[in-house]
Amino acid sequence: MKAEDIKNLKIAIVGAGYGGAAAAKALSLLGADVKVYEQAPQMGEVGAGIGLRPATMARFRQWGIFDAIAKVSSASDYFEILTATGEPIMKDTWPEFGDEKQTYLIHRRDFIEALLGVLPEGMVQLGHRLETIEDKGDRSVLTFANGETVEADLVVGADGIKSAVREQLFSDKGPVFSGEHAYRVVISADNAHGMAVDDNLRMYMGRGTKVYLLPLRHRNQMSFDITALNPDGTWAPTITKEELLKTVEGFDERIVGIARDLDIDTVNIRAVYDIDPVDSWHTDSVVLMGDAAHSMLHHQGQGANSAIEDAGALADALAQADSVKEALALFQATRKPVTDELQRISRQGWSEEEVNDVFPGQKPAAQAQV
C-alpha cells in the first residue's frame, strides 16, 4: 500500500501481549493510526524466562528497539539437551538469521515492559475487555465491556489462546489440553546449586518430564521450569510440594535439590493447552495473530517468537500489497504454513530418540551430537 494510504488506516489491536505490542510498534512505524485495547486494568506477566531467537532479534533491530530488549536480557550462544541424569543428547548453536547468531534470554515481565515502553504514550488503552466485534467488510466495530465503541479499518486479534475475536468470527473450537502441567518459577542464581554457570539454555528430559534451566544472569536469577505429565486439565491446578518432587525423581541431584528448596507458593502452576489449527485467520478487515491464531505447546520455545514474526510479517504485507484485503491474504499465506508445522511438531510426545526430528532448522543429527 502507498504510504499515504497506510497513514489513513485506523488500526485497532485487541490485546497488549507480546504479539499485540510488537504489531503496534511495526504498524505504527509504517505511519498507521494504531491503538491497542487490553482487557487487563494493569499490565503484568508471569515470572518466568523465555528465549528470543536470532530472527526475532533481527526484527527488533529493524524496528530500532534492539538495544531496549538486549539491555534487559542475556545473550545465549547455544542450547543443550541432556538426559535426566545429565548425559548429553544434543548441543547446538541457535539457527542464525543474517548477522544475528544469539538467542536472548529474558524475563517475561521485562520483555513486555520493554515492548510497551517503546510505544507512544496513550497508544495502549487498558481496561478494555472486548464484548463484540461486528465485521462490516471494509471496516469493523468493536464494543467493549466498559461501554466504549471503536470503529477501525483493520482489527488485529492478538487476544491470546482464549481469543474473543477468534471465537466470534473464525472458530468456536476451544483450547485443547495437552495432558501436561507446567511448573515455573524464577530463583536466585545463588540458589541454583551451581547450575547457572553461563548464559545457555539447558533441558533435561526423562520419563515424561522435561526440566528447563534458563539463566537470567543479568538479574542474577535462573528460570526453573518443569513440564510433567498430568491428567488434570484445570487451567490453574493445585499441586503439593511432594507431587512436584515426584516429577523430578531420578533427575540430576542438583535439579532435585532446586525443587526441594522451592516454596510451592512461589511456583506458577498451569495446565498446558494449545489450539487446533484454524482454517482461516482473516476476513477483509480482521486478522488473527500470535496465540489467537496458532497457540502452540511450549516444547519448541516458539510461542513468543512466532508472535513477533507475525507482527513483522503483517507489517511487511501491508507495505507490499495494494489493499488491506490483499495484505491479510499475503500475511496468512506467509505465516500459516510455518505455524501449522510448529503446532504439529510441538504436539509430538517426543522421546530422546526423536530430538533431532522435532527441532527443525538445526544442524543434521550427525553434526548435532556432542
From TrEMBL:
Q: Which UniProt keywords apply?
A: FAD, Flavoprotein, Monooxygenase, Oxidoreductase
Work out whether the entry's keyword set contains Flavoprotein.
Answer: yes
Recorded hits in InterPro entries, A to Z, give:
FAD-bd, FAD-dep_Monooxygenase_BioMet, FAD/NAD-bd_sf
Q: Does the keyword Oxidoreductase apply?
A: yes
Q: Which GO terms describe its molecular function?
A: monooxygenase activity
**Where in the sequence is the signal peptide annotated?**
none
UniProt cofactor(s): FAD
Residues of the FAD-binding domain: 10-341
Report the superkingdom from the record: Bacteria
Name of protein: FAD-dependent monooxygenase
The organism named in the record is: Arthrobacter humicola
